[in-house]
Amino acid sequence: MKNVLIIGSTGQIGSELTMKLRREYPAGNIVAGYIPGAEPKGELLESGPAEVVDITNAQMIADTVRKYKIDTIYNLAALLSAVAEARPQLAWKIGVGGLYNTLEVARENGCAVFTPSSIGSFGETTPHNPTPQDTIQRPDTIYGVTKVTGELLSDYYAKRFGVDTRSVRFPGLISYTTLPGGGTTDYAVEIYYSAVKGETFRCPIKPGTFMDMMYMPDALRAAVEIMEADPSRLKHRNSFNIASMSFDPEIIYNKIKEYVPDFKMEYDLDPLRQHIADSWPDRLDDTCAREEWDWKPEYDLDSMTRDMLQNLHKKLHVPELAV
Ligand code: SER
């Protein structure tokens, strides 16, 4: 990785991945691609180059790739699962049409491509605990359909055209920086905001619903390490299961209560999100990622909770708790 384009650089993952890459590589080589209406601000704007790159416009991607001699593209443009159900045509246009544009530009310009897949690429008929690396993928959400299509199309471009495509299946991602936009796992981020603000959390997912989750620093490290992995060791490409923790709403609530004893939670179920969550795995088996590129998470629920609470206290200017 020398010259990198991040498409979707102002989103939940992109905003943090862009800054991580600018700290670890020459910042001027890391180009933040964004769409009008989601312009980079502050540190993200000031720390390196930025260009308008709409993933549905292949020419825009190609022009930026040539201008900056890009060799690696992080394709992070997507609608999350619940929002995608409200706008399925747009989800396909961005998730699949956008990926096709990216892969074609990569094929013509010799770029490597990272496109995240997700726990959402699995469905009801997938074994849920544990979910193997290679298994049934029959999701019934448009988000999942675009993710499975993306995995297959990326592998096709690798085999047929030699495009260096690689990917991981992200769990629900938890961070204090940029809020997720309309996913099924968002509750596990919002619960921390409620705890720090002293509000009662209204949980949209019912107790006993387990899903894989991951703290953002581990997810960002996975996105970089998979692109830097020795290709001769990779038996899989699109896409690797990665995992670090699995919990239901009661477990995360009780963990937060260890540090915020007065914290209260009520259930206020969202049928769409519950239906999606029920169809997703309880726990991914990430043995292949561990064996093929030495994947290993650093955070568990306790260390993530302490870090989230400390940082949200600073961000929201709430007097600090002893966590
Ligand atoms: N976090 C995503 C969602 O909930 C899953 O990949 O949509």
Largest sheet: 6 strands, parallel
Question: What is the arithmetic mean of pLDDT?
Answer: 97
Number of strands: 14
Distance between the termini: 38 Å
* Percent helix range: 40-55%
Poorly predicted sequence stretches spanning 5 or more consecutive residues: none
Shape: globular
Rg = 19 Å
The share of residues in extended strands comes to 5-15%
Structure at a glance:
The chain has 323 residues and is α/β, with parallel strands linked by helices. Helices cover 43% and strands 14% of the residues.
Describe the protein in words.
The chain has 12 helices and 14 strands. The mean pLDDT is 97. It is of the alpha/beta class and 323 residues long. It is globular and about 55 Å long. Helix 3 (58-67) packs parallel to helix 5 and helix 7 packs across helix 12. It has helices spanning 14-24, 42-46, 58-67, 81-86, 88-109, 142-161, 187-197, 216-228, 249-259, 271-279, 287-293, 301-315, and strands at residues 4-7, 30-34, 50-52, 72-75, 112-114, 117-118, 165-166, 168-170, 172-174, 201-203, 211-215, 240-241, 245-247, 265-267. The protein binds serine. Serine is lined by residues 80-81, 118-120, 143, 170, 172, 183-185.
